[in-house]
Amino acid sequence: MLFRTALAIFKLFEAQILELESFETAFMFVSKLPRQVTDIDAFIDACFDKIWLMRFHRAKINSLRRMIAESLRQDQQFRSTRRSFSAATSTVVSLSVQLMKRTGN
Questions:
Q1: DSSP assigned state of 105
Q2: pLDDT in tens, 34-65
Q3: Whole-structure pTM over 0.85, yes or no?
Q4: DSSP per residue over 10-74, as a string?
Q5: Domain boundaries, the chain
């Protein structure tokens, strides 16, 4: 029920949300949404509107969760690889400097 309530709030303010141009503005706007719900009848209608809620089947939600989890895993793997590469590069530079000092170059 909580998920349905959140979706209904987003649905009520969909047009305004789509007009926002930055993440920061969207975050501030969305954080104030619950206090902006003044038309209770429209809110209840949105909560139980089966036409647009039908798009959110459990299978679709699970599919999106898997897709996001995979994306997060790939991002984490990329960051780990980048850290390893950075550490290796730092080691190579350090060894090169030491070698140049020893050879007098």
A1: -
A2: 788 888 888 888 877 766 656 667 777 788 78
A3: no
A4: HHHTHHHHHH--SHHHHHHHHHTHHHH---HHHHHHHHT-HHHHTT--HHHHHHHHHHHHHHHHH
A5: 1-55, 57-105
